[in-house]
Amino acid sequence: MKRPPVLLVILLLLGLSSWTSVALAQPSQAPVVEAVEAVGMTVADMERSSGFYANVLSFEKVSDVEVTGSAYEHLQGVFGLRMRVVRMRLGEEFIELTEYLAPRGRAIPVDSRSHDRWFQHIAIIVSDMDRAYQWLRHHKVEHASSGPQRLPDWNVNAGGIRAFYFKDPDGHPLEILEFPPDKGDQKWHRVTDRLFLGIDHTAIVVSDTEASLKFYRDVLGLKVVGESENYGTEQEHLNNVFGARLRITTLRAASGPGIEFLEYLTPRDGRPIPVDKRANDLIHWQTTLLTSRIETATRSSSIGRFALISPEVIVLPENPLGFKRGLLVQDPDGHVVQVIDK
């Protein structure tokens, strides 16, 4: 059976009257996406991973469920699955760790680089970079950066930010980030004795910013809130990519973490996401976007269609994952977005 175009499926999920109409993020109308609900990743060993995020990074477990059945197989595009999903919270933001008890997927390639397009991370805000780095060293985390980097003051939009990349037990890249007083949301500057505060954004490597904007901004309605071009020795050592020059674009919904595009202007040899990648592979991340039914939409010019993972909007038999309907779709580079309706 031929699958319907992805925009048709998304718009059916959103309750739009015509698949040729696409909701645009205009001030006079509500955006399609109301919140970035969570950022998820596939893990090999739930006890090891949930322990790492709890004991090293101060996340708190919110729920722990195990699901199986045809609805979840169709949602995730993996036949015969049984998966354990642990939802964890840091501050006001959430992650979801998924272990596929069956079938097991593939490990992250050992030669992965920060400019390969399967790169995705979450940026965890810390109140004290020096103390956070020493804490991570104490727990023997694997470095991805050579050490914490302070972005230079000549970069007006990023100057003074301190950042460090490292990896979790499966090799997923993570970032800790400290904002100077004049940057970042005000909530990151509240006086606190906590070291790890919350998630500011998830970052994805994209091949073409404009193509990604057509999906995240023009179709889903996220708003561009920041742009910069980063280069120099600090950026090279942060990403551990010689000659790194990045176009960075940040988008946000009304609530939840931002989504940050990392387009490498140089070097351009980052590898694409494997075409046979599945949700049970450990390079799989999925960003969950919350929406509700939209009755009207503004007609737009033609926007490209994007690949489906779920064959259609999936209605779940119960509500163990916290939503009743969902759909997995790939963005232009193959990053996975899970659109849900509670």
Annotated CATH topology of the domain at 120-266? 2,3-Dihydroxybiphenyl 1,2-Dioxygenase, domain 1
Q: How much strand? A: 35-45%
Level-2 CATH architecture of the domain at 120-266: Roll
Q: What is the percent of helical residues?
A: 10-25%
> What is the 3D form?
globular
Query: Can you say what the CATH homologous superfamily of the domain at 120-266 is?
Result: 2,3-Dihydroxybiphenyl 1,2-Dioxygenase, domain 1
Q: Specify the biggest β-sheet.
A: 9 strands, mixed
Number of strands: 17
Explained architecture:
The protein has 342 residues and is of the alpha+beta class. The protein has a domain at 120-266: 2,3-Dihydroxybiphenyl 1,2-Dioxygenase, domain 1 (Roll). Helix content is 16%, strand content 35%. The protein has 6 helices and 17 strands. The protein has helices at residues 6-14, 46-55, 70-76, 129-138, 209-219, 233-239; strands spanning 33-43, 60-68, 82-90, 93-102, 120-126, 142-143, 149-150, 162-167, 173-178, 196-206, 223-231, 245-252, 258-266, 285-291, 314-315, 325-330, 336-341. The strands form 2 sheets. Strands 5, 6, 7, 8, 9, 10, 11, 12 and 13 form a 9-stranded mixed beta sheet that branches. The longest helix is centred in the middle third of the chain and has 11 residues, at 209-219. Residues 1-9, 11-28 and 293-304 have low confidence and may be disordered.
Throw out a few tags for this protein.
6 helices, 16% helix, 2,3-Dihydroxybiphenyl 1,2-Dioxygenase, domain 1, 342 residues, 9-stranded mixed sheet, 8-stranded mixed sheet
